[in-house]
Amino acid sequence: MSRTALPPVPAPTRGVHATARIKAARVGGGTGLPVLAGDGPFDLRRARPHGDQARVCVLGVMSAPLGGDRLRIEATADRDAHLHITTAAATIALRGPTAAHATFDVRLNVAEHASLHWAPQPLISAARSNLRQSCTVDLAPTARLLLREEIVLGRSGEGPGRLSTRLTVRRDGRSLLEQQTAYGPGAPGWDGPAIVSCHCAVGQILIVDPALDRQPPEARLFGDDPATGQAVLTPLAGPAVLITALAPDTLHLRRLLDAAHQVTGS
């Protein structure tokens, strides 16, 4: 009696687990980068410094985050150091070979009299993706932060995947901002008037600076026509300013964010 061989059972798909680590430290009259290490999809490149500010560009060398991936970026600015981090291109969340969610965690630590600018290119939530993104920031009392985030809900002609974002900011160990939002299929009311309505581009700028204690800006609305997007500037206790914006596309979103940011003088 002949036997028919059964097809091999595929091994369970395991996503990529990768961490990038960046550390900026004061060196002479400028800022050095004693730690600059990335694996998986993270390729970290030193960019030309701007004054005493060290600059790092994160290059994606593979498609990520995909379903099942666990990605993490850790960045620290030591005392008196100044660090600017950006990405070379937009980050696209995709479904990948598994329907499991992906995670992308960012941890930022800023010491006394140091500053950190976190300004990546947009995050695009593609259809059928499932991403949980978090950003946790710990600031010393004299630290300065500029955090800019842009999100695009769906590529051209498609809806978004499932995306949840969480931003936690602590200053001197005390909570300054705790924010959590969910978009896409299964998220209650995400496309209603209370969240994004008909818009697909969402962005915000958070500025934390001790100088804002002396001259805090007033609350202000930007954009005359809700159909082309609007932004609002809101002072926070901290001292901090939060700018949030909604728009039909990234072009209008960036114009709104830039106009509001210019008013702060930071």
From TrEMBL:
Cellular localization per UniProt: Cytoplasm
Cytoplasm keyword on record: yes
Keywords: Chaperone, Cytoplasm, Nickel insertion
InterPro entries: UreD (IPR002669)
Keyword presence, Cytoplasm: yes
First-listed, main subcellular location of the protein, grouped into a coarse class: cytoplasm
Domain of life: Bacteria
A Pfam family reported for this protein in Swiss-Prot or TrEMBL: UreD
Protein family membership: Belongs to the UreD family.
Job of this protein: Required for maturation of urease via the functional incorporation of the urease nickel metallocenter.
Description of how the protein assembles with itself and partners: UreD, UreF and UreG form a complex that acts as a GTP-hydrolysis-dependent molecular chaperone, activating the urease apoprotein by helping to assemble the nickel containing metallocenter of UreC. The UreE protein probably delivers the nickel.
Protein known as: Urease accessory protein UreD
Organism from which the protein derives: Nonomuraea bangladeshensis
Taxonomic lineage of the native organism: Bacteria, Bacillati, Actinomycetota, Actinomycetes, Streptosporangiales
Gene name as annotated: ureD
